[in-house]
Write a structure and sequence with these properties.
Strand content: 15-25%
Radius of gyration: 23 Å
Helix content: 25-40%
CATH topology of the largest domain: Aldehyde Dehydrogenase, Chain A, domain 1
Largest sheet: 7 strands, mixed
CATH architecture of the largest domain: 3-Layer(aba) Sandwich
Bound molecules: nicotinamide-adenine-dinucleotide
Length: about 475
């Protein structure tokens, strides 16, 4: 088994070389105790320009390979990631804090996109359209869009990269990636394995930089970049959208959420509790599809709250590398303070803290349950991104749906009910890109992941996820007499 230290790299990867723009190094900290994991050479827009030019040079030769030839490289990359699962998972837990079992799961999940799109690229079909005159023929083909810029967050240091670059690379687009400054080591390990897999120079580029705003703006304004794919906050998504206006760049945006979890009076409450725990506390509540609001029908409110609180009280908090830990640290002190502010706000407005409610230290936060939550509380509108579970009460189906939709966000939602009719009617009424019905974990490479409203645009994964990296071209054949 590879020692994880053999997969730690300290430079950016551009045009097939390990390089850096500056001599200054960035320290990467372990969120579980603030200790240093290592440091990486910083780079900026100078190296970014080199990466964009290298990607642009690599575009036509990469596009001209057959889908099967590209598939072979992607499949190799997939196999190398799986072979090094334990080492990558360890690096991931060290830099983002999630429990090792979750990190292993993310390696599998992230790698699955590579395998899926390697296969899917062979099915990028066009169309033959019945002609509009006797001597003409109409054909439509799909072609890769061009150089893709990928900007990713820390909460899924591997999967947020592969969800974007796997479809891009598979259809023939070179990529320039900028991972979060909090989790660059996982990204660099991926780059190392991409190098070993044999992507031609310039096809796979990854830059470590502590200047996200400058990198984002530069990518948006570059005429050599055809598309930006971003995962992160709605605020930054809006900024990138505005910055891309001058080049009319295509954008895919996977942004924030405010997921409702509706429990109806005919639900299997034990199943709902199980789904609730899985969805709420993954990565200590720091995922865009984590439940933000539990909406529970009046007649089952007390039973759900009691059973859920009992289950939450059993969760083991600690360093993600330790055996049996289910909840790791939050990403930084700012996240601890923000989580605390949600609790304070709820307390002031009459919420009952029935479990937890306090930081354990500067790194960990107690899993928290708040009952009698009301719509004037901050978490009714804002994304929590921490281990707090507020429970709201509703009476009728209409009221439940109205409360669920009363947000600017529209990413994931969940409903628990024993009724087929309710499953359909409520799913159709929810203004969300995804609905889990009697299921708390819904992410998979085979289904389209994405949101509506302020949660973004575009879909990742599935047969639909490849469309965002291709353009349609219409060919009109004349003189066919
Ligand atoms: P963030 O927007 O602050 O940062 C995301 C990434 O963008 C980071 O790498 C950051 O360095 C970079 N960034 C910051 N400012 C930038 C700029 N001006 N230009 C370009 N890049 C910039 O978000 P965060 O707090 O780190 O991540 C959590 C957010 O991501 C949450 O809102 C969460 O819901 C969202 N998220 C969404 C999905 C999804 O699929 N919809 C998945 C994971 C996370």
């Amino acid at each position: 088994m590879t020692d994880y230290k053999n997969l730690l790299f300290d430079k950016s990867f551009v045009d097939g070389e390990w390089v850096a723009e500056f001599e200054e190094k960035l320290d990467v900290k372990n969120p579980a105790d603030g200790s240093s994991i290592g440091s990486i050479y910083n780079s900026g827009t100078g190296l970014l320009q080199n990466a964009i030019e290298a990607a642009h040079r690599a575009f036509v030769p990469w596009r001209e390979k057959t889908a099967k030839e590209r598939q072979a490289v992607l499949e190799k990359w997939f196999s190398l990631i799986i072979e090094n699962k334990e080492a990558i998972a360890t690096i991931m837990t060290l830099e983002c804090g999630k429990p090792l079992t979750e990190s292993r799961g993310e390696v599998d999940y992230g790698a699955s996109f590579i395998q899926w799109f390697a296969e899917e690229a062979k099915r990028v079909y066009g169309d033959v359209i019945p002609g509009f005159s006797a001597d003409r023929r109409v054909v439509v083909i799909r072609q890769p869009i061009g150089v893709v810029g990928a900007l990713t967050p820390w909460n899924f240091p591997l999967a947020m990269i592969t969800r974007k670059v796997a479809p891009a690379l598979a259809v023939g687009c070179p990529v320039v990636i900028r991972p979060s400054e909090e989790t660059p080591f996982t990204a660099l390990a991926l780059a190392k394995l991409a190098q070993e897999a044999g992507f031609p120079a310039g096809v796979f580029n990854l830059i470590v930089s502590d200047e996200p705003a400058a990198i984002g703006e530069f990518l948006c304004e570059s005429e050599l970049v055809s598309k930006i794919s971003f995962t992160g906050s709605t605020r930054v998504g809006q900024l990138l959208s505005a910055q891309s206006a001058s080049t009319l760049k295509t954008l895919s945006l996977e942004l924030g959420g405010n997921a409702p979890f509706l429990v109806f009076d005919d639900a299997d409450i034990d199943a709902a509790v199980k789904g609730a725990i899985a969805s709420k506390f993954r990565n200590a509540g720091q995922t865009c599809v984590c439940v933000n609001r539990f909406l529970v029908q009046d007649s089952v409110y007390d039973e759900f709250t009691r059973k859920f609180t009992e289950a939450v009280s059993q969760l083991k908090v600690g360093n993600g590398l330790d055996e049996g830990v289910q909840i790791g640290p939050l990403i930084n002190k700012k996240a601890i303070d923000k989580t605390k502010s949600f609790v304070e706000d709820a307390k002031e407005k009459g919420g009952k803290i029935i479990l937890g409610g306090e930081p354990i230290d500067d790194y960990f936060f107690q899993p928290t349950v708040i009952s009698e939550a009301t719509t004037d509380m901050k978490f009714a509108k804002e994304e929590i991104f921490g281990p707090i579970a507020p429970i709201f009460r509703f009476h009728t189906d209409e009221e439940g749906v109205q409360m669920a939709n009363d947000t600017i966000f529209g990413l994931a939602s969940y409903i628990y009910t024993g009724s087929v009719t309710r499953s359909w009617k409520i799913s159709e009424a929810l203004e969300y890109g995804m609905v889990g019905i009697n299921e708390g974990i819904i992410s998979t490479e085979v289904a389209p992941f994405g949101g509506v409203k302020y949660s973004g645009k575009g879909r990742e994964g599935s047969k639909y996820g490849i469309d965002d990296y291709t353009e349609l071209k219409y060919l009109c054949f004349g003189g066919v007499k």
